[in-house]
Structures are given as C-alpha cells and as structure tokens.
From TrEMBL:
Biased composition (Low complexity): 866-877
Alphabetically ordered keywords of this record: Cell membrane, Glycoprotein, Membrane, Transmembrane, Transmembrane helix
Membrane topology according to the record: Multi-pass membrane protein
Coiled coil: none
One Gene Ontology MF term: protein dimerization activity
Name this protein carries in UniProt: Anoctamin
Source organism of this protein record: Cyprinus carpio
Gene of this entry: LOC109046877
Spans traversing the lipid bilayer: 285-318, 364-383, 445-466, 486-509, 529-550, 657-679, 707-731, 790-811
Domain of life: Eukaryota
Length: 886
C-alpha cells in the first residue's frame, strides 16, 4: 500500500495518524453554511444518482404495430432486447435502478437512474486502484508570482478568495481491510468523492456485456455508438446560476463556484481555481486548463518584448537613412516593369510601403528571434516542472494506466478472436498484416491530401499574379498603384478560407481513416488520429507562409530572362521585401482563424443547445402553468440531457499548438504575433470554461499525468523554430545585407543603390535604363558581393542554429524536469510508507502470522476454504463479502 503526500513542504505530523477533525469528510467539501438542496437523488430523497442512461422511442402505436408485423427481429426489437439484458446485468452487478419516462409529442424519452451501494463501491474501488485519503495536509499552496509580488509588497490583483477549496490529502490505494485507517470512513455516503463514484459506475458500464462476448457486444460505449442508448452521463451538481437571494459563498455548489469565480468574463485577470477544476472535472481537463493558463502567462513577457521591438520599428521608420534616401530619390531610380504589360515606375512611389516594412524587418527582429527560440525551450522546460508538481499534488505522478480494454468499435468489427494468454479469455483480434496495409493506405491518403494543399497553394499564387495583371489593365490609377497589395491581401483571405475548408474536410477524413485502421485501444487510436491531423494541419496552415518566407522571389530571374510558371512570370517580392508580405500573411491566417474560431466557440454551442432544447420541448399539457417564468421545472436528468455532449480536448489543444507554431516558427516576420496570441488566449480560457461549466454535459473523470503526445509535438515545433528563424533572418530579412554594407562602406548612404542592379541592354530601350532588385552585373550574372553575402548568410545559419540550440541544451540541463524538492518528497513518502507498514506489522504480529498460515492453506487447497476463513483473512465488511458480479 503506497501512501503519498502531495505538497512540497514537509509536514511534521505522522503520516498514518487519523485526523483530529473527523467532521472533515473526504467525499464532500466542508461548508460552514447550510448546503443547497441536493436534487440528484432517487424518489426516496436519499439514494444518490451516480449515472444516467437515456434512450428515445417512438410512441406511435400504428407505426409500432406495422414494424412488429413486418419483422419480429427488427433493429428496434434487437435494441430493446439489448437494453433489457444490459439493465438486468447491471442489477445483477448490484446497482440500484430507477426508471423515469417523459412523453414529448410522439417521442418517449426513458431515463434510467443508476446508483452504486456501498459494497459495490468498495469492491470496484479496490479493483481499479482508487486513491483515498489518510490525513489532511494543512500546508498552503502558492505559486511563484504570488511569492514575488508579496516580497515586493505589490498588491496581487490576480488573487481571489475562492470558497470551499478542496483539501489536500495524504493518499494511498484503497483496501477494504484497511477501511478504518482512512479519513472519513465513518460516513459511507461521502467517503468516496462524487467523481470517484462516476469512475466506478463508468467502469461497471464499460465492462458489462449485453449480448455475445465473441461479437464484442460489451459496454456502454458500443451501446451509444449503435444508438441503442442515446446518452449516458453523470449529473452536474445543480445549476450554475447564482441564487437570487444572497447566500454564504460556502453554501454554493461546486458548479456555481466554478462559474462565478472562473467562467465569467470578469475573471479574466484572476488565477484559475485549478484545484476546484480538478475536483469537479478530473485531472485530464484540469491539466489542459493548467497548461493553457501557464502558456498564456508565459506569453505576457513575449508580448511585451515583441511590442517593444514593434515600437523600435516605428522609430526606425522616422530615422532610417536608407528609407530617407529612397523617399527623396525622386526619379533617380526607374524600376523595370513588374509584369509583361506593366509600365516603368519610380522607386520613390513605394516610400510608405518601404517604411512600413521596417516595422517587421529591422535589427530588433534578430534579437526577438533569438529571444523567442530560447523562450520556447525555457517555456517547455518549466512546464514540465509545473506538470510534475501538479501531477504530484493531484496523485498522478505515479499514475499508470490500467490495462485498457478494446475499443467498442474494435470489438464490433474485429474479424476473429484469440485467447488471451494471461486471462484465458477470448478477445477480439485484428491481424497485424492487415492493419499495416491499412496504415500504409492511410499514409497514402495523407500524402494525397498534402498534394491537394500544394495544388491550392499554386492556384492562389497564380490568382495573385493574374489579379495583378487584370488590375493593371483596368487603367484606374488608384488600383494600378495598389495592385500588388490588393492581390496579396485578397490572396491571403482566400487562402484562409481554403485552409478552414480543407481543415474540416481532412479532420472528418482522418476520423474515418483512423477507425478503418482498427487500433485496439483508445490511447493508440487517439495518438494515431492526433498525428494524422497535425501533419496535415501543419502543411495546411504553414505552406503559404513557408512559400512566402523561403521561396517567393527566389526563382524570378532577371529582365530579359524571367522564369515562368504555366506561362506566367514567377512572383517576386515587393521592393520593400518579402518580410512585410509574410507578416501580412501571418496576421490574416493566425488572427483571422482565431477570430473565426472564437466566434464559432461562442455562437455554435448556444445554437446547438437551443436546437436540442427545442426538439426536447415538452408538450403544452406537460408545462407547469404555475411556474413564475412560465417554463417547466425540469428534473436534473432532463436538464442535463438538454446539454451538449462534451467533445473532448482535441480541438482545443490543436488550436493552441498551431498558434504556438505561428508565434515561434515565423516570429522574425511579426513581432506582434505573441501579443495577438495573448489577447486570444485570455478570451479562449473563458470560452472553454463556459463550455465545460454551462453548455456541456458533465464528462466522466479521466486521470492523466501530463498533456501526452502534445508535449512531443511542442518540442518538435520549438526545434523547428530555431532553424526557421535562422533562415528567415539570413535569406528573407535585409538584416545581413544592411550589416554587410555598413561594414564594407562605414555608413548606410547609398544602400538603396547597392541593392539595385541595372537591367541588361537587350531588355531596355536605347534611351532608357531600368533597375531591379538583385546583386547582378549588366549581363545578369551574380556579382562578387552576391557570393560574399551568400557565404555570410550560410555562416549565420550555422552559427545561429548551434548557439541557440546549445543555450537551449544548457537551459534543459539547468532546469530539471522534476524539482529537487519533489524528488526528495517522493523518496520521503516511500520511506514513511514503509515505516507505517512496519509499525502496523509490529502491532499486529500475531494476526499476520495467522493470515500467512491461512494464505498457505488457501493456496494448497486451491481456494476452497469456508466463508468463515475467508472472512477472517480479509476482514471484509458484510457487504463486501458478497462480491458484485458482472
């Protein structure tokens, strides 16, 4: 029996000593005020509702009679048979049931309320290794920002006094024969937390068969997927709205507390009540919000530095020598036509555009690129530390996933069964060779979809070029002057629309492919699905910025020898460079996607909820006329059924990971990206909180030790960001050419002329010469400065990459994944657990000797002892002797 204490500060009290305050029970929060009435009970007003099963049926008698006459073995009859068998087995397993029926028009909705008695809870708590409390930990929990502000004597505007803080406990795995040693064992109604009761019920529902085991007809998951049941969910703890009359905050239920102190927009600058979130939703959801809050907090210094760099760019707009030279050049630099039908133009006409480019292309962006590369590495290292602290505090640092059962879809579709060599039971099986062939086929589909993305990218490139030509032919002076900007901006918006449409299409396609690949467990299924979607979304979202950053303007050629694509001249960067176009593309895609996603997250759940409630609206005869608001007083199970199904965390993680890529991989082009990400995340936290508290049905608690495969993806992005920023600064930015020119001439005077080449004589008319951007001689061949600059650029890439990665490795070495105090704490807990067990053995030596003798006899006799011997061996309660069966 492993016992663990979860705080970082040593407690001087004995680990196993029982609490001096027995009224502090484990399963419910200590409240000084009278709690609100609990409506989540059976008709007797006492039995707690732990889970609800729901199905809908048509009540049209003619329709039912016709279906019965046509075929007695119809799907409706099969579903009714499966439900009857399933409920019968649940009753055999020891669960209490109560049925409620609601007729609404031509539809009858049946609710089966389930409750687990004490003996069932004890049996399955030991079966699935639930952790229960030994002693309250009284050491307060604080974070680093609170400590810093306290030392500086600065008021902490982020702190708030959230009532009913869930107590911290020393815990260990539950054992029935050690029941009297656990805190709160006197009260059987509250000993197990509400979320633990949900876990136990879901465990029973997931392993209960309703038909043939060989056909995989097992578990609630397949019943819902086969539409035998329309829903299965635990209940929320009452309403989330605050009471109309002012009450003691300690009398609020946990859902009201989370809504008032977390999900409201007014809480945007407050700490998240992570322990309350964990208490109500479980560790997996709490870790997501902990990561999102941690990421948002770390965006603050990045946003501040980026904003300072942006202000530095504004200062350069006024003081830059090259910009002044360009704006005052007049007719000195006549530029070659931008297309085959375009006319010559003066470089001074793009004065404001060139100055705007300095906002994103200046020496400060080099510093900011290095800063963000190190920021990403440091952020991930400190998140790993924070994750280890939270998982230790939440009893997950040694969490090992219980042997996963096969997915319901896998059990239903597996073509054969094999005997498990460990359990001896027949289990569904899918041949590895067939899975491999399906996986390869799925990868081919991924490659095909990536090719489609690239085709759309080429189409948008052609669109920009063709639109520019059309605008030049319009003979409108204003549009001709802004042709490049109009084509670029509309191309970016069109690209965003294509990205969003392809994202929807591929996510749906990835679900089909992943199901088709027949992964046995849910973990393997989720990992395969996440990788598929991320690979595609990576290409989908980043292909256009990558093209602008590293390919656009590289294959243009020179006057008289232009390269073409499908007969159209290749795109070139504007005179102010590609970096401003890259910044525009990033802002349109990143900010545009964030705005659209937030609108969807705000509006769509409300529309779905309204439509779902409209379908479930009671008939007029059922409405309660005497209600003050004219609405029926719905029961908790009806009100919860009207909520939306929790969609999980995949979309939330994917959105944040893609955002992380934008602010790290291309940050050299847009210093304001972290600022926009910070604003978005402040909104995102509240939107997600509102969805989970107000609009979703309560999900079953899932335990987790960290954020899983997403951490590996974030590491990959952080390493890719170093390489990307090195090439951005070297080949896309004007930083190195400016540095080279200043070094060779001593000043920036004449820099504009240095960057422009003279068109070959065979291109220009005899009486006019034109200039174009490049380092070439009058024959179009690269000059010596071009090769010098190329060598400098390649050297910079190597030096930048090695220096940043080396510093990152040093940070990784200096910041251990698990804090030293946590490691010491874990070792201390192991030692204290051994001491506690040794003390227990010394006090009960005679009993242990008798137990060892009885164990030997049981092993020899093949477990054929009488019930009295078994009872004396295990010291089980009377309820636990009758072990529930499924």
């Amino acid at each position: 029996m492993m016992k663990r204490k979860k705080n970082l500060v040593e407690d001087s009290s004995t680990l196993i000593a029982l609490s001096d305050h027995p009224e502090q029970t484990y399963g419910s929060l200590e409240m000084s005020a009278a709690p609100q009435e609990n409506r989540n009970v059976f008709s007797d007003g006492v039995t707690r509702i732990d889970f609800v099963l729901v199905w809908e049926e048509s009540v049209n008698p003619l329709k039912l009679a016709e279906s019965d006459e046509v075929s007695s073995g119809s799907s409706r009859d099969t579903h009714r048979k499966w439900r009857t068998e399933f409920l019968s087995r649940l009753q055999t397993a020891g669960l209490h049931q109560e049925t409620k029926e609601v007729v609404q028009g031509k539809t009858k909705t049946t609710y089966v309320l389930l409750s687990a008695p004490w003996n069932v809870l004890c049996y399955y708590a030991e079966e699935i290794s639930l952790r229960v409390p030994l002693q309250v930990v009284t050491t307060p929990i604080s974070n680093w920002s609170e400590k810093i502000l306290e030392k500086l004597h600065i008021p902490n505007i982020m702190a708030q006094d959230v009532p009913n803080l869930p107590p911290d406990y020393y815990t260990c795995q539950f054992h029935t024969n050690k029941l009297e040693r656990f805190l709160g064992h006197e009260n059987k109604d509250t000993f197990f937390k509400t979320t633990q009761r949900h876990q136990i019920l879901y465990e029973i529902l997931a392993r209960t068969p309703y038909g043939s085991l060989k056909r995989g007809e097992v578990g609630i998951g397949r019943l819902v997927s086969e539409h035998v049941l329309t829903a299965a969910f635990p209940l929320h703890e009452g309403q989330f709205e605050m009471p109309k009359t002012s009450e003691d905050p300690k009398s609020l239920n946990m859902r009201q507390i989370l809504h008032h102190y977390w999900a409201r927009w007014a809480c945007w600058r407050k700490y998240q009540p992570l322990d309350h979130i964990r208490e109500y939703f479980g560790e997996k959801i709490a870790l997501y919000f902990a990561w999102l809050g941690f990421y948002t907090g770390w965006l603050l210094p990045a946003a501040v530095v980026g904003f300072i760099i942006f202000l530095f760019g504004i200062w350069l707009m006024v003081t830059d020598v090259a910009a002044e030279e360009l704006c005052s050049s007049g007719n000195a630099f006549v530029m070659c036509p931008l297309c085959n039908i375009c006319s010559y133009w003066n470089l001074s006409s793009i004065c404001y555009t060139y100055k705007a480019g300095l906002l994103f292309d200046n020496g400060g962006t080099v510093f900011f690129s290095i800063f963000m590369s190190l920021w990403a590495v440091t952020f991930l290292e400190y998140w790993k530390r924070t994750s280890s602290i939270l998982s230790h505090r939440w009893d997950c640092s040694e969490f090992e996933e219980i042997e996963e059962r096969p997915r319901p879809e896998f059990t239903a579709l597996a073509p054969m069964t094999v005997r498990n060599p460990v359990t001896g039971a027949e289990e569904p099986y899918f041949p590895e060779t067939q899975r491999l062939s399906r996986t390869i086929t799925g990868n081919m589909v991924i490659i095909l979809m990536i090719a489609i993305v690239l085709i759309f990218l080429i189409a948008i490139i052609l669109y920009r070029t063709i639109l520019s030509i059309i605008i030049y032919r319009s003979q409108n002076a204003f549009f001709i002057f802004s042709a490049g900007r109009i084509a670029s901006l509309t191309g970016s918006m069109l690209n965003l629309l294509v990205i969003l449409l392809l994202s929807r299409l591929y996510t749906y396609l990835a679900q089909i492919l992943t199901r088709w690949e027949m992964h046995r467990t849910q973990t393997k299924y989720e990992n395969a699905f996440i990788l598929k979607v991320f690979i595609f979304q990576f290409v989908n979202f980043y292909s256009s910025p990558v093209y602008i950053a590293f390919f656009k303007g590289r294959f243009v050629g020179y006057p008289g020898n232009y390269n073409t694509l499908l007969g159209i001249r290749n795109e070139d960067c504007g005179a102010s460079g590609c970096l401003i176009e890259l910044a525009q593309e990033l802002l349109v895609i990143m900010v545009g996607k964030q705005v659209i996603s937030n609108i969807q997250e705000f509006v769509l759940p409300k529309l779905k909820t309204w439509w779902h409630r409209r379908k479930l609206k009671p008939a007029p005869s059922q409405e309660l006329i005497d209600e003050p608001d004219g609405q029926p007083d719905l029961s908790p199970w009806e009100a919860n059924y009207q909520l939306l199904v929790c969609e999980g965390l995949f979309d939330e993680y994917l959105e944040m990971v893609l955002q992380f890529g934008f602010i790290t991989i291309f940050v050299a082009a847009c210093p304001l990206a972290p600022f926009f990400a910070l604003i978005n995340n402040w909104v995102e936290v509240r939107l997600d909180a509102q969805k989970f508290v107000c609009e979703y049905r309560r999900p079953v608690v899932e335990r987790a030790q960290d954020i899983g495969i997403w951490l590996t993806i974030l590491k990959f992005i952080s390493y890719l960001a170093v390489i990307s920023n090195a090439f951005l600064i070297s080949f896309t930015s004007d930083f190195l050419p400016r540095l080279y020119y200043r070094y060779t001439t001593g000043s920036m005077r004449g820099y504009i002329n240095f960057t422009l080449s003279v068109a070959p004589a065979n291109f220009t008319q005899s009486y006019m010469t034109c200039r174009y951007r490049g380092l070439r001689d009058d024959k179009g061949q690269p000059t010596q400065d071009y090769y010098h600059l190329l060598a400098i650029r390649l050297s910079f890439v190597i030096i930048f990459e090695h220096v940043v990665l080396l510093i990152g490795r040093i940070i990784d070495w200096m910041v251990p994944d698990i804090p030293e105090e946590v490691e010491i704490k874990i070792k201390r807990e192991h030692y204290m657990a051994k001491e506690a067990l040794a003390e227990n053995q010394s006090l009960n030596r005679t009993i242990l000797e008798e137990m060892e003798q009885q164990i030997s006899e049981l092993r020899f006799r093949g477990r054929t002892q009488s019930p009295n011997n078994i009872s004396s061996l295990s010291s089980l309660s009377p309820e636990h002797k009758n072990k529930p069966t499924v």
